[in-house]
Amino acid sequence: MRSSNSRPSRVGVNPFMHELKFTLTEKIQIGLMSVTVFPVRLLLVSFFMLLAWPFAFTASLRRSDYVVEPQSWWRRFADLCLRVIMRALWFCGGFHWIKVKGERAPSSEVPILTAAPHSSYFDAIPVTMNMCSIVAKLESRSIPVWGTLISYIRPVFVFRSDQDSRRKTVQEIKRRAQSGGEWPQIMIFPEGTCTNRSGLIFFKAGAFIPGLPVQPVVLRYPNKLDTVTWTWQGPGAFKILWLTLCQPHNPMEIEYLPIYTPSSDERGNPGLFANNVRKLMAKALELPLTDLSFDDREISLSHGPLSIHDYSSLLEFHQLVCRLGLRAGRTDAVLEEQARRARKLQGDALSLEDFAQFLNLPVTDTLAQVHSLFHQRDGEIDTRHFVIALSTVHRPLKSMETLKLSFKMYESEENGDVLKEELAAILEIMLGVKEVELSGLVLALGGSETAKITYDELNHFIEQQPNFVHDYLQFENHPRKLCVDRPKSYNGRSHNKDD
């Protein structure tokens, strides 16, 4: 599998990973702060959160979820108290002063604020400063204390158990945005997830579907030691809280950019609208654009003995199949059926038109791009390669299931084995690499150059070799050297290169 020459990959640093490294001085500082300042700050933060609860609870009583009532004097008083209490809470957490650039437009002029990059639960600071609404999952309403505070700001709740949730959420955002300022502003984080601020990932279209002006809001945390980032792979929620409260000061910058009014083309194309706003915000942040989305996170974080080594081509493939509508409804059963049909072809190569018929799709430019990603034989591809890639991006955390599915398409009926060349083709696609060399694996298994292998044999071998890819495979641009001078049978002993 290869990357398209028409669109270079711009992945760069994985935005879903965050690794903290401390100097000796920082370790000493954290140790001292942990037994002195941290307990006091945690106590004060907890106190102010509990203090905010009765105001939020009282102000939310008998309030409709669908109609905005006139603000009575006591509700305005509760709102003022909550703003003061929440600012005191953040102050006690080390956010002593928060630099604000630009000016926030009123809700009557701009109903939606788009904030990025979204990298931490501390991004709630601008929300509490302005008491904006947010988009939140319904389950957050049941969180003790914090759930009441969330309910107070009148969020757009997402019912994840409802299959029609996305459409209903977009409809509610649109309804509020078109109220002429009657509802509070909605602050939306269009990335849809937390990243490490190394770049801006693709924006979801929800904030841009109404086709109304938006005000971009960029967030910065200039601390030398980044303790606030909370993403998919890295420190957990409590560790982030502990480390942040152990910093003498946590600076934050909030910048309100000029209002962005969509053109007629952008109003009719929310994706174009979202991408143009993303470019504007990336320029203000001096960050690169990253060709990743929320749906790509598992691909970029794959793990296990056959984890994806280079995910650039697989990410491009994934984005294309999403555009074809092949991601929706993709189940293991559907993959099994496609694998069965691909096996029946016995490796027969398919032209673009035959490939379209195989998928029951019309011939389009997007389908042609998918077809071109695979190795061509006179303009035709082996459909088994497509099924392997589809399984890899559908369940990147279950690589052994993809390997088993792949064997079903290639194995002989007599012995259930596959040729070395066929296994190399399978692994090239699963790992996202080129020209896999299996001589190390063949040596380790005691086979010949024309060796064959069954799934059970390979599965058992991999179970005994946690560093299987590192120790037994070689491929183009592999950063490590292959070690085959002392092949070992799969007997469970540790493999020591220094013996």
TrEMBL record:
It comes from the Eukaryota. GO terms for molecular function: 1-acylglycerophosphocholine O-acyltransferase activity; lysophosphatidic acid acyltransferase activity. Residues 112-222 form the Phospholipid/glycerol acyltransferase domain. GO terms for biological process: phospholipid biosynthetic process. Pathway: Phospholipid metabolism; Lipid metabolism; phospholipid metabolism. It is found in: Membrane. The chain crosses the membrane at residues 30-57. It holds the Pfam family Acyltransferase. One of its GO terms (cellular component) is membrane. InterPro entries: EF-hand-dom_pair, LPCAT1-like, Plipid/glycerol_acylTrfase. Keywords: Acyltransferase, Lipid biosynthesis, Lipid metabolism, Membrane, Phospholipid biosynthesis, Phospholipid metabolism, Transferase, Transmembrane, Transmembrane helix. Belongs to the 1-acyl-sn-glycerol-3-phosphate acyltransferase family. PANTHER family: LYSOPHOSPHATIDYLCHOLINE ACYLTRANSFERASE 1, PHOSPHOLIPID ACYLTRANSFERASE. This is Lysophosphatidylcholine acyltransferase 1. It comes from Cottoperca gobio. The gene is lpcat1.
